Amino acid sequence: MLELQACGCHNINFVTPEHVVPQLVEALPSAIEGGLRLPLVYNTSGYDATECLKLLDGIVDIYMPDFKYWDPEMARKYSRAPDYPQVARQALKEMYRQVGDLVIDEDGLAKRGLLIRHLVMPGNIAGTGEIMRWIAQELSPATYVNIMAQYYPAGKVKRAEFPEINRRVTPVEYERARDEAWRAGLTRLDSRRHSPPGIL
Questions:
Q1: Each residue of 33-42: pLDDT tens digit?
Q2: Helix (H) or strand (E) holding 132
């Protein structure tokens, strides 16, 4: 962490770190004594145990979870995790309780708060509208949301086991997803353009 800070990094980003939370917590006192002052980012799929997240209250500055699926059947079919929607909702509520809405400084750098990512999927299998409405109603209309269009078929999908998602997201699907977020009342969508490949 201190080496990354010395290199000029803007934050310390822990990716899918639930299994190393004890080590993270153990290492922090030494890092802080050594001068660590960067925000800590918890970068995750959203499939996190609330009990584990509660251990990080007051430690993590920025939570950056995905919200992948609304429908348990879609989560079961494509990720073998039918409980994903329920687990993710509980996790995101706990994250929001700890850090609130995203705070960005004058240089455009995140300092504290929640940033949710949502990957648009072919045929709306992710349930974008339901997810956006839940975020606006259960968390905050000011929740910062990054709606992403970079889905591409690979692995079992590319081997034709899931033909319904064996394609990229269309421009119409992507714009519809953004419209769903605006209609839900969300006011802070990532302003960078994330067009699907081929329409840049």
A1: 999 999 999 9
A2: helix 128-134
d(CA 11, CA 62): 9
- 123 sits in the region (left: phi over 0; alpha: psi -120 to 50; else beta) called left
Which class is 2-189 in CATH? Answer: alpha beta
Domain boundaries, the chain: 2-189
Portion of the chain with pLDDT greater than 90, in percent? 90
Q: Which long-range contacts does 175-183 make (Cβ < 8 Å, 24+ apart)?
A: 176/124, 176/128, 177/118, 177/120, 177/124, 177/128, 177/147, 178/147, 180/128, 180/129, 180/132, 181/128, 181/132, 181/145, 181/147, 183/129, 183/132
pTM assigned to the model: 0.92
Strands annotated E in 45-85: 62-65
Beta bridge partners of 146: 117
pLDDT in tens, 60-74: 999 999 999 999 999
The Cα 122–Cα 19 span in angstroms is 31
Q: Which residue has the tokens 């968390």?
A: 139
If you compute the radius of gyration of the chain from its CA atoms, what whole number of angstroms results? 18
